[in-house]
Amino acid sequence: MKLLSAIFCIIASISLLITCVKSSSQKSPQLAGNDSISTLSKNGSAQKLMTGADQIPAYLDYLKGKKVGIVVNQTSIIGSTPMVDSLVALGVNIVTIFGPEHGFRGTASNGDKVSDSADPKTGIPAISLYGKLKRPTKEQMANLDLIIFDIQDVGARFYTYINTLGHVMESCAESNKEMMILDRPNPNGFLVDGPILEDHLQSGIGMYRIPISHGLTIAEFAQMINGEGWLPNKLQCKLKIIKVANYAHDMPYTLPAMPSPNLNTQQSVMLYPHICMFEGTILSQGRGTYMPFTVLGAPKLKGKYDFTFTPKSIKGMSETPLHMDTECYGLDLRKYDVARLQKSGRLNLGWLMEMYKAYPEKERFFDMTQSKQMGNFDKLVGTENLKKQIVAGVSEEEIRKSWEPGLSNYKEARKKYLLYP
């Protein structure tokens, strides 16, 4: 009977493994999947893109017998199944779940502190890294053999998951524990542009000396953190990387799940590096609507633009949005051809320059003292110069020249850490 039970368990495990792998082709109800994403091998045959998480045979045996911590959110899926559920079913001993901004389930609004809890499905303790803690404590690390990091990034400096990555790497390095990264494509991986963050403007929305759009996957970024000595005292974190299969930086990639509550469409994901800088202005970017980061506007632009929208309080997205309950006039970018952004390989500064010129009270355009936005404009863009240049009417080409040689130096340094073409 014991032999029959053992055989049954093996068959059940293999069945679950096959199910998880097959589910990688399923679509999420939130965003379109990647059934059409493929590359050509040397012999011309099509090869399907597979995230690190979807390649279960590449890491499952390595995790067996280890006490595992896992840094995840709602984007951490194997196929269409939450990673925690899949790994627990496959016999992985997950001891602690760590959640970043927006929480483990991705339901908290931007900037909201998230409390510790327990995963209601598995009962595993879920520790917030966007509340009292920014990184796992020594006591929490002592109970682990390894930490898995699997979170979808969108490639922008002010998107806080790269900060979470750095904080967790620091804890791993101090505790001499390994971090396994299940890599995912960067949907804006083709875009490397913007001013380099000035040291005195470092903050929670900008920790590293990188441009606005960094053009790296999470695993590549981790390698850069190690290689450039960005951890305190130049600590080094031991990394084990499961690469994305059949991926290149210039490949279009549609996310299978929302990366955060206000990036709820592929259009918003692609526009985010270009639009988020408006959070340091008097303009709404659509927070408080169901089309965030695809529209721009303000009440004072009435008569300048015909398109309108009215921000409302939306639980889990934006409870107190800028210009709440007030009609805003501005730009509708929901149907903007984002392929133009990839073709240009540049951040779109035209919208910022246009909206500043159109705004009637220019002295208030960058004045966010009365707003609950992410932060001031200088911290968002990483430099004090851009605001001054916009106000002075400096040309776009002159603005871009002022980003050098920092941007070119970054691009050269970046090459050392690339895992994909």
Topology:
Elements: H1 2-22, E1 38-40, E2 46-48, H2 60-63, E3 67-72, E4 77-78, E5 81-82, H3 83-89, E6 93-99, E7 117-118, E8 125-128, H4 138-142, E9 146-150, H5 161-175, E10 178-182, H6 218-227, E11 239-242, H7 266-275, E12 295-298, E13 307-309, E14 328-332, H8 339-344, H9 350-358, H10 377-381, H11 385-392, H12 396-401, H13 406-414
Parallel strand pairs: 3-6, 3-9, 6-8, 9-10, 10-11
Antiparallel strand pairs: 1-2, 4-5, 7-8, 12-14, 13-14
Keywords: Signal
Domain Peptidoglycan beta-N-acetylmuramidase NamZ C-terminal: 270-420
Domain Peptidoglycan beta-N-acetylmuramidase NamZ N-terminal: 68-266
Plain-language structure description:
The protein is an alpha/beta fold and 421 residues long. The chain has two domains: 33-242, Uncharacterised protein PF07075, DUF1343 (Rossmann fold, 3-Layer(aba) Sandwich), CATH 3.40.50.12170; 266-405, Alpha-Beta Complex (Aspartate Aminotransferase, domain 1). The chain is built from 13 helices and 14 strands. The chain has helices at residues 2-22, 60-63, 83-89, 138-142, 161-175, 218-227, 266-275, 339-344, 350-358, 377-381, 385-392, 396-401, 406-414, and strands at residues 38-40, 46-48, 67-72, 77-78, 81-82, 93-99, 117-118, 125-128, 146-150, 178-182, 239-242, 295-298, 307-309, 328-332. The protein has a seven-stranded mixed sheet with strand order 7-8-6-3-9-10-11, sandwiched between helices. The chain has a three-stranded antiparallel sheet with strand order 12-14-13, with no helix packed on it. Helix 5 links the parallel strand 9 (146-150) and strand 10 (178-182). Mean pLDDT is 87; it is low at 1-45, 106-112 and 370-374.
